[in-house]
Write a structure and sequence with these properties.
Strand order of the largest sheet: 7-12-9-10
Order of helices and strands: EEEEHEEHHEEEEEHE
Strand content: 25-35%
Oligomer: single chain
Structural class: alpha+beta
Number of strands: 12
Number of helices: 4
Largest sheet: 4 strands, antiparallel
Amino acid sequence: MGSEYFVLAKGQVRVTVYQQGTDPADPQLDELVSFEKVLDPATSEDKMIGFGEIALLYNDKRTASVTAITDCETWVLSGDVFKQIIAINSIRRRNISLEYLDKVELFQNLEKYAKLKLIDGLKVLNMIAGEFVFHQGDKGDHFFIIEEGQVECGAEVENADGTTSFNLVRSLKKGDHFGEVALINNVRRTLSVRAAANC
């Protein structure tokens, strides 16, 4: 069972995942490898690399073997502390996100539990000014809530010279939402939306 989380600061380790049901004592273990990867902070964008969280999050056995290739410097975090940190951050994220959902008229009649389930499905999408969130005619498969910044909703019109103009219909700011029409009515996007400021 997993009881610790590891952070590799220096050195190289090999992560090996074997085929399901493999016996660790099998003499032909090398032939039963389904996935293998080398972790090395020196060649990673991150200065340190963490591993071992899956067994802790799911309270299960380790799904991979990790072997040191070189001398390593590794930090070890107790599983109980790791879970506590994850739980605290999850609660904080839920409280912050719940404030935004409470401001969305579409969700005001939902019970708190239903809102918390929605929060679990939220993810952050960062946009830079001028970047399109989606274009009219695109398939509608997401709903958006503006946490920071501003967006413009408009119609894209093709001009005689082949260029495209953006005719502004409305602007939306922090706390506003968009994208529900295509989801509710099962239609394609009726307008294009672009970031008017970094979002």
